[in-house]
Amino acid sequence: MKTIETLIQIFTILFAFIGVFLALRTIALKKKINYSTLKARAFLNESFLIDVWSLLLLACLFFIIHAIIELIDIFNLTTIGPIIKAILTEGTELGVLVCTLLLVYKWFKLVNLSKYQD
Fold first, then answer.
1. In 1-118, which ranges are E strands?
2. Which of 44, 75, 96, 114 could bridge across to 38 with cysteines, CB 3.0–4.6 Å?
């Protein structure tokens, strides 16, 4: 079970670095994009908006699950083992990170499309 927790932590670190890379690339494109086009693409594209709000909702649900796990542990309401608790905790953190990474990727794609539309 400890190897699963370690694997989750490795994926968390990997996804975090990918997210930082994509965010920095998006920021670097700041001078090359037309903001009017970007605004129109972001807020008139229904699928983009639905994807963004769905990912934010999913990230919030992972936060809620994480908080419930911590609350249950604080009040000793269950006898789940520390390894299972750690896996659940790390898994919910990874879930939030994956949602965030997907959001960053969505914006990265949108900015890259906008860059070529001038």
1. none
2. 114
Q: For 39-74, what is each residue's pLDDT tens digit? A: 777 777 788 889 999 999 999 999 898 888 878 776
Cβ-Cβ contacts under 8 Å for 13 (sequence gap 6 or more): none
Q: Which amino acid is at 73?
A: D
Dihedral, CA of residue 64, residue 57, residue 28 and residue 116, to nearest 10:
160
Domain that holds residue 18: 2-115
With 0-12 / 13-18 / 19 or more C-beta atoms within 10 angstroms meaning exposed / middle / buried, residue 61 is middle
Q: 32 near 115, Cβ under 8 Å?
A: yes
